[in-house]
Amino acid sequence: MEKETGKENVTSKNFIEQIIEKDLAEGKYEEICTRFPPEPNGYLHIGHAKSILLNYGLAQKYHGKFNMRFDDTNPTKEKVEFVESIKADIQWLGADWEDRLFFASNYFEQMYEAAVKLIKKSKAFVCDLSAEEIREYRGTLTEPGKESPYRNRSVEENLELFEKMKNGEFEDGSKVLRAKIDMASPNINMRDPVIYRVAHMTHHNTGDQWCIYPMYDFAHPIEDAIEGVTHSICTLEFEDHRPLYDWVVRELEYVHPPKQIEFAKLYLTNVVTGKRYIKKLVEDGIVDGWDDPRLVSIAALRRRGFTPESIQKFVELCGVSKANSSVDYAMLEYCIREDLKMKAPRMMAILDPVKVVIDNYPEGEIEYLEVPNNMENPELGSRQVPFGRELYIEREDFMEVPVKKYKRLYPDNEVRLMNAYFVTCTGLEKDEDGNVTVIHCTYDPASKGGNSPDGRKVKGTIHWVCADTAVQAECRLYENIVDEEKGVYNKEDGSLNLNPNSLTVVKNCMVEPELGKAEAYDRFQFVRNGFFCADCHDSKPGAPVFNRIVSLKSSFKLK
After folding, report:
1. How far, in Å, CA of 7 to CA of 9, rounded?
2. How much is the mean pLDDT over the chain?
3. Does residue 142 come out as left (phi exceeding 0), alpha (psi in the -120 to 50 range) or beta?
4. d(Cα 498, Cα 46) in Å, to the nearest integer?
5. How far apart (Å, rounded) are the C-alpha atoms in residues 324 and 318?
6. What is the structure's pLDDT at 3?
7. What separation, in Å, do the N-terminal and C-terminal C-alpha atoms of the chain show?
8. For residue 161, which of 119, 218, 108 has the smallest C-alpha distance?
9. Which of 246, 413, 420, 427 lies 20 to 30 Å from 337, alpha-carbon distance?
10. 3-class DSSP state of 438
11. CA-to-CA distance for 423 and 426, rounded, in angstroms?
């Protein structure tokens, strides 16, 4: 972001950049290192994109390093499927970890040794209290906690018990290792927090090698310190955990301790990001997977047709701050429209077709018209579009009895067929239910290219597809998966207020032949209907399936 000062443009730095530049200027670090540390217990969503791009962008800006690390210390919910999806998302967004792909589980031995070091310093003890008893002993925000009766075990006894925990001699939940800090601390996170628990579970990376696992608040600062991370950038909910983060790196005596900095999360209005809710939507068959285009997981946005550049622009517009706020989903739609309007070829697709027969056009003849791919971007070139006696137009582009100010096709009215000819409606055919099945027209051969030879004006221009060469396609039209008027969550039971019209499948669309060749993730602007993307799962050459990314118009205005 730049500010106009009258004499020169001065770059306005966010508060994280200011901290980093001060640290570099004071010689605290020779080179900065950031990281993105997701837990592989679900797919990433749009909020994670902010963190990914922020951390990677800072490393790029200050010529430092960016690490990719899976914080896989909790085997109860973690899967290889999630690991692979997260890697794909980050690569798609353009964040390059180079050769620095790490797993917290690779440091389990060092974390165990770190815990032993704390025990030897009398800074950690094995506790036999149950989880419920630990909560009771913890105290409240206004009352101090009370010490565990096991707090003053000897170093020797703690070392022996901790080794037995490691060797699998205790049941899950029977013992934990706790840091020995201060049960009267005003910060509840510092009241002798649990740093290791017993869990006889198979881990996706280490198998059955371990039956004790470190807690996140203990593991995370160790991971950062081992990797040489200088600035551990996380979201605001970890602000109260920072004293514990600092305590861990201080007590373990790391020479170059990392610094934790918190920033505000990215909240989008009227979207579902909670993993628990998305998991239920998947299990109940309401969506067809974590990448269903109605969701805002990064995989879902990619499948729907969003581009990395549009998400980068969105994150940039959101900015970085210390204050939590919500952003309207319309801003994300604005970013994809802005990105695609110059990139996407503009093609003709009829979503609700009705046939037009040009009675005075030669039967059996097909001619090819040169049509620009994008009027605003000549660099995209042009294509040859077939035109013939029978066409398809949108049903809404014809009215037998036109309403006031209707400028499209109706009996005796002349319109322009986009890039083709002027045609005049001369009649129509209906089925027994009164629905129009065929519209008859005549054309003016002298108006080729959509230009009048005698200067006469036509008020309406409509798009079309040649019936003889049209390819049948499926188009999927999306609305918000939740009912925006009711809000995301039901206030009574916490369930989602689902929108029953979140997906409309239109199966008998007619599209020009070029669209029949579309491959996964190919993006187009369908004239008047919006921006569309070939679905990566279901679209096949000759039988395309298109997801509508976004409609063409929006009420959103960039301030």
Report:
1. 7
2. 93
3. alpha
4. 20
5. 11
6. 45
7. 14
8. 119
9. 420
10. strand
11. 9
- Cα(434)–Cα(445) distance, rounded to whole angstroms? 32
pLDDT digits (tens, 9 = 90+) for 214-229: 999 999 999 999 999 9
Could you identify the residue written with the tokens 């209907």? Answer: 529
Among 542, 36, 532, 7, residue whose Cα is nearest residue 305:
532
Encoded amino acid at 473, one letter: A
| Secondary structure of 92-150 as H, E, C letters | HHCCCCCCCEEEHHHHHHHHHHHHHHHHHCCCEEEECCCHHHHHHHHCCCCCCCCCCCC
Residue 75 CB burial class (10 angstroms; 0-12, 13-18, ≥19): buried
Question: Taking the mean position of all CA atoms in its chain, how far away is CA 519?
Answer: 22
User: Half-sphere exposure of residue 374, counting CA atoms within 13 Å on the CB side?
Assistant: 15
Spatial CA neighbour of 557 closest among 321, 317, 266? 317
pLDDT value for 481: 92
Among 72-86, 172-186, 482-496, which is the least confidently predicted range? 482-496
**CA distance linking residue 291 with residue 286, whole number of Å:** 12
Show the tokens assigned to 288. 């067809």
Report the 10 Å Cβ neighbour count for 149.
12
Closest CA to 17 of 220, 245, 221, 231: 231
Name the nearest CA neighbour of 343 among 311, 369, 309: 309
- Average the pLDDT over 11-39 and give the result: 92
Query: Residue 480 is encoded by which pair of tokens?
Result: 């918000």
DSSP-derived secondary structure letter, 319: -
Tell me how far apart the alpha carbons of residues 36 and 191 are, in angstroms, rounded to a whole number.
28
Chain center to CA of 333:
12
User: Among all chains, which residue has been given the structure tokens 């099945």?
Assistant: 437
Helix 308-318 to helix 46-61 angle, to the nearest 10 degrees? 80
Task: State the Cα torsion 391-396-397-399 to the nearest 10°.
Answer: 110
- List CB contacts of 263: < 8 A, sequence separation 6 or more: 15, 16, 54, 233, 234, 235, 236, 320, 321, 322
d(CA 401, CA 103): 68
Name the pairing type of β-strands 545-550 and 530-534.
antiparallel
Q: How far apart are CA 124 and CA 158, in angstroms?
A: 8
